[in-house]
Amino acid sequence: MDKAKLNEGMKKYTMVIALLFVAMFFTWQTGGKLLLPQNVSNLIAQNAYVFVLATGMLLCILTGGNIDLSVGSVVCFVGAVGAKLMESMGVNPVIAILIMLVIGTLIGAWQGFWIAFVRVPPFIVTLAGMLIFRGLSNVVLNGQTESITSGGFVKIFGGGANCYIPDIFGIEGFNLTSMLIGIITCVIYIAIQVAGRRNRIRKGYATDSLKSMIVKTIIICAVVLAFTYKISMYRGIPTALIWVVIVVLIYGYITSKTTTGRYFYAVGGNEKATKLSGINTDKVYFLAYCNMGLLAALAGMLTIARMTSAQPTYGQNYEMDAIGACFIGGASAYGGIGTVPGVIVGAVLMGVINLGMSIMGVDANYQRVVKGLVLLGAVIFDVLNKKSNK
């Protein structure tokens, strides 16, 4: 029994274990530079778009292994429109933000219509979108760079040196406010775990052992505290992280606690059975791609804020980073399996690999080779796991 539980636990936390070993390897190879406070902070700031896009991509993948190849181009197009609105046309940044979100959602709805109601394969629709919106990005920007001078926009979406939560205590060299936020986060998490366990026991639901819950809680809190301690030694919590946390919390709740979230898993598990049970599967597909467009717009804002400019080349290969993070994080290539926390682990793993190789000075071409091999390995693991279960 214990051996069976151990095997089950190993399968469940394979990517977490892999992330730990990869982080240890690059820490060793870089002489500890990977874990310098500035590099830990940069890991979040530079990969914020991956966390956001991968969360949206997960919903598409859940519906049956479908993907969205257009997200990188949509990121670029929405960012280009936003930059033009704010800089060339003098539109208020708040209005520009709303317009960008609406444009992203409309793009998602347009692609979702063909996929959900006309049943054009997602690969074809989003491939066309990739070409269309990359071309429109060049048209909007006239092939040139549009600089972002709106300090408020840049600060809110995490670009520049001052885009961190300020320390109200004013301690030099350590952001105590950020550290306290990490401690409060752990306290809230512990309270939620205890309350949730009591609620499940009261209702007669199956629960993990108390020992298992305590170990899991200790590990997660230790990671959170170690992370916040590191970034507090640099400048504190970057504002980009706030957007990532908001997206993760919202979509983590939707996918695990709501009926709508269960529909995505049901469609990916068996679409015909789901349709026969009375669920409108067309609407599920449509919602997945509408949502992807919305999150692509948010990723576009994070991108142009970090770069403080918009360029026709932004967003290239973003779709591959998002797809890779999903599959590495445990999403099934067949659909119906995957979680938001798993996707975040996958995104962090990709970020650690990118950052570690960059610090080591590995050629960019070899970095692509490694990322490709990691993605292939994750999918092969999923396929073999499916066969062994059968």
Automatic annotation (TrEMBL):
Main location: membrane
Pfam families: BPD_transp_2
Membrane topology label: Multi-pass membrane protein
Recorded GO CC terms: plasma membrane
UniProt-annotated location(s): Cell membrane
Record bears the keyword Thylakoid: no
Gene Ontology molecular function terms on file: transmembrane transporter activity
Record carries keyword Membrane: yes
Stored InterPro entries: ABC_transp_permease (IPR001851)
Keywords: Cell inner membrane, Cell membrane, Membrane, Sugar transport, Transmembrane, Transmembrane helix, Transport
Residues passing through the membrane, by range: 12-29, 49-82, 94-117, 123-141, 174-192, 212-229, 236-254, 284-305, 326-353
NCBIfam families linked to this entry: GguB (NF040906)
Described function: Part of the binding-protein-dependent transport system for D-xylose. Probably responsible for the translocation of the substrate across the membrane.
Name assigned to this protein: Xylose transport system permease protein XylH
Organism (species): Anaerosporobacter mobilis DSM 15930
